[in-house]
Amino acid sequence: MRIDVITLFPELIAPYLEHGVNRRAAQAGVAVHFWNPRDFAAGAYRRIDDRPFGGGPGMVMQAEPLAACVEAIRAERGEAQGPKGSQAHSEVGPARAPVVYFSPLGRPIVHAVVSELAQSSGMILLCGRYEGVDQRFIDAYVDCQLSLGDFVLSGGEVAAAALLDAVLRLQPEVLHDAQSHMQDSFNPSLSGLLDCPHYTRPDVWREQGVPAVLLSGDHARIEAWRRQQSLQLSQDLRPDLLAKARQQGLISKADEKLLASKAK
């Protein structure tokens, strides 16, 4: 997998990739390249922003440096160049990596989005700044807009780092236990629900013990307990997840009995 990141501040993201799981992703063959749009701006000052038409506060990132940057990335990746819908874009060749722009207008970054991107050959991430990006560039080059949540950040770097972390940990040979992510919250193996609580040694900490079932060695009982906890936590903390799972037919009669038994 190859990921290209367009950002004015690569130093905000690059160190994050040098440790832990992210570092193992690089060792497993995932390549992350950083591109500064100033390198594609004209003039002695390498200006990449200007005042918005119609007035108003702040500045807007210009379309041309970003377009030139994307074209350079496409060329290095061996992909067809040109904006969406152009003749060059429609030519047969390697599948073009999607351009992902972090924006308050974007879809929320949820597990399904991360999983889809993790199974791709890569992507181009655009970290906006200031008041945003010239809409004409978005219309011509951006394939997908994503959002970290209903709040505004100073730039897309924090969202890019979060997405990178989520995508990289799903790559083969990155996690020590290849199956560990299957037990993550929101994973289809958990019907999209929250994960259960976890405990480790010692079995008594500050007079608080571990649930006895986890010490029983009875794997069937342990799995039932974990499922019940997942259901109950989702019902208490994220009822929207439980409702969605029910709509998708992922909650069985046995699950409903587990929920009912806890309620009593």
TrEMBL record:
SUPFAM superfamilies: alpha/beta knot. GO terms for biological process: tRNA N1-guanine methylation. Signal peptide: none annotated. S-adenosyl-L-methionine binds at G128, L148, G149, D150, F151, V152, L153. Keywords: Cytoplasm, Methyltransferase, S-adenosyl-L-methionine, Transferase, tRNA processing. This is tRNA (guanine-N(1)-)-methyltransferase. It comes from Lampropedia aestuarii. Belongs to the RNA methyltransferase TrmD family. NCBIfam families: PRK00026.1, trmD. Specifically methylates guanosine-37 in various tRNAs. GO terms for cellular component: cytosol. Its EC number is 2.1.1.228. Its main location: cytoplasm. It is found in: Cytoplasm. Homodimer. The keyword Cell membrane does not apply. GO terms for molecular function: tRNA (guanine(37)-N1)-methyltransferase activity. It catalyses: guanosine(37) in tRNA + S-adenosyl-L-methionine = N(1)-methylguanosine(37) in tRNA + S-adenosyl-L-homocysteine + H(+). Residues 1-243 form the tRNA methyltransferase TRMD/TRM10-type domain.
